[in-house]
Amino acid sequence: MVRIKALFLLVASLGIWLISCTTTKYVGEHDYLLDKVKITVDSAQVKTNDLKPFLRQQPNYKIFGILKWPLYVYNWSGRDENRWLNKQLRRIGEPPEIMDTLLISLSQTEFTRYMISKGYIHADVLSTIDTTKRKKASVEYRVIANTPYRIRNFSSSVLDNQIDSIFHLQAPKSTWLGSLFRVNTEEFTSLIHQDALFDRSVLDKERQRLTSMLRNRGYYAFNNEYINFLADSTFNQNIVDLEMVVRPFQFINTEGLIEERKHQVYYLNKIQIITDFDHLSPGQAERFMPVDSVLKDNIWIFYGDAKRSLRPVVLQRRCYITPGMLFNERAIGQTYSSLSALRALRYVNIRYDEFEENDTLKLNCTILTAPAKTHGFGVEIEGTNSAGDLGFASGLNYQHRNLFKGSEMFAAKIRGAYESLSIDEAGQGNYWELAGEASILFPSFIFPSSQTFRDKVRATTELKISYNQQRRPEYRRAILSGGWSYIWQERSNQLTRHVLKLYEVNYVFLPFLDRNFIASLPEAIALYNYSNQFIAGSGYTYSFNNYDPLKRGNSTYSFRLGFESAGNLLYTLSSLFGAQKTAGRYRLFGINYSQYIKGDVDFARSLKIDDRNTVAFHIGGGIGYPYGNTTELPFERRYFAGGANSNRGWSIRSLGPGSMPVTANSTFVYRVGDIRLDANIEYRSKLFWKFEMAAYIDGGNVWTIRAYRYQPKGNFDFSRFYKEIAMSYGLGLRLDFDYFLIRLDTGMKAYNPQVEGSKKWAVFHPLNLKENFAWHFAVGYPF
């Protein structure tokens, strides 16, 4: 209790010290610290957040929107700028934002321009400065939209009948255009409508839509600069008559004069693929001397010094353009993305040479590619923390990116791990793990499928085999696995991903079991978790994720839906061939096998507040149901709660199931379930440099689908499950290196269903770091 009081006094003293640190320490005598900025708009169609990017001056940054921590850090520095400590504090912190009336005026101008672009031609932007607080200023911008301009009539002036007919095309009834691309119905829908706001951004989008339509239909030389909009607003009634004009093609004749003519379509002529291209050497394409060439389906493929590093059919099948076809920007883009997806290539570029033949404009297309390094090695070293047990792991991996000259990737990995286990009834122990894995990724379906289907998706076939050996004081376990999976994405939607686990077999073998340990377990747990068994089945996972590591601050969301089924084929074969049951179960080669179905769903959303603040939340659930040859899910397929990616107030595998109390015998073996519910919300705020802080609330638990004697109060019951949802809260510190993120999270129990009475609400009781605190070290965001 004395330690808790001392910690409380320390935190309170720190808070008082922070408050006492004036934010105006480095504000000049006649200057004002820009303390607050407020923007109000009297139109529901214009959001405040739409105007914030045009604000030229903003107050100092607040962590979680409350505390100006970077400014406090800056103010901790002394006035001697030459001292090392002062330099570091000022580099880490943020200098005071001094109110600048010129920047306020520029912000008003930017707001006015934005409102005009949205159709509010007569908008007024007013600013008010409040300096009643000592050396602090608050600025309020009031945007008065007034009556906007709307489009009364819309017409087009397209002298070229061919182009005009393309603009009026309707989307085809079929959902597929030809055999290559899914139709985007927005391509055929005009964005300009009568009585719509006179919005310049909508005009730009319409210009781009029409340009794409033409470039997908042969008009290689067309760009959006040829489309202009003429607005007539002379009616003084806040209305606009809008006319779209498509200007003719302009070119310079032999006499150096500018001439005009109709836009013309281009046809693809010769198509050639050059391998072994050195993109770092200027003019290398012109000097390239092939040592081998192949004509495959009217496409010339030229090989350099590496000779046939990729089979001709591999390159030809990823080329979606053919001689004689109209130029199609969509097909060109598809060719580029398809070739870029080959792991055996590190560079892809497409060049055109245009010429005229028999009054027809043509393009010679040259696709330049460069091979990637065939072999790759990597070393991984990591620290581990499982329920407070510290350890380390390291691994060595090897990759061959072109195994059979078809961009097949062979990967092999070995990994070793050690962990010092906590002292328990068995005494001090060690955990060792040695694992090996080998896989081959084929850049297509290894299965009979139509060319049309292969053209629609970007597919990968994975064949994988692995071996994992685990050693603990209580047992030794070995897992031998093998599987065949398909992974694909629709070419028209790269944000979605499908994984079909065609079949996967896991053989769990336990060469050693401590007799005392097994004797202490219920019979069912020993049977399903600590005996030799097969787990064989199939599964499917659909996922969507618009996360971009280069645009991490943007609002994103992800969705994942998975289904797994095991043992059905083995059970059917056992029944058909009249296998005999042993203890009420079928066996394969004298070994038990599991039969179950399992489903999971997860949704996560990240909402950007501003450039330095984000709110993210996640909700998910899953259920597994054993049946037929099984009355309990295998240990490897059961859910657990607690840990860095779950309820962070608990260590990994220390929560649940349900309200099962904590006893001396309730080890991690018992703390698993067949049903899970998770919910998390997290506020993320940038500090300085690469550092980020987070505050979060987690909720959730796991339950068993049946009432098991050895897991009292662990089953899911509608009458009480909502009382068994554990809650925790905490703070986290993250180090963001753009492509990966390291985080340290601390969690405190708020509501603990594992205890009785008023002690459940740990948040209302004195701070107890020993029983109610957990910390986690991990890589990547929790969701």
What does this protein look like?
The protein has 783 residues and is of the alpha+beta class. It has 15 helices and 33 strands. The strands form six sheets. The chain has an 18-stranded mixed sheet that branches. Strand 14 (345-357) and strand 15 (360-371) form a beta hairpin. Helix 3 runs antiparallel to helix 4 (84-92). The model is unreliable at 1-9, 175-181 and 423-427 (pLDDT under 50).
State mean pLDDT (0 to 100 scale).
Answer: 85
The CATH topology of the domain at 2-144 corresponds to Ubiquitin-like (UB roll)
The CATH homologous superfamily of the domain at 2-144 is termed: membrane protein fhac
Helix content: 10-25%
Provide a short characterization of the protein structure.
It contains 15 helices and 33 strands.
